Amino acid sequence: MSKHSSLKAAGSAAGKRSVMKRFERVKLLKERGQWKEGRSAIGLPKTKGEA
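The structure corresponding to this sequence follows.
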C-alpha cells in the first residue's frame, strides 16, 4: 500500500522557525548584555535572532 500524496511532504515542510521560545530569548538577551538578573521571564521584549 502506498502513502497518500499529501503525507509525503509533511516532514520536509518544517523549515526554519521564525519564532523564538522564551528560554531562547532569555539566552540571547544574556549574550547581548541586555538581561538583568532577577527579572521576570514574562513579558519579554521582541528579539530578532541572528540573521
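The mean pLDDT is 80.
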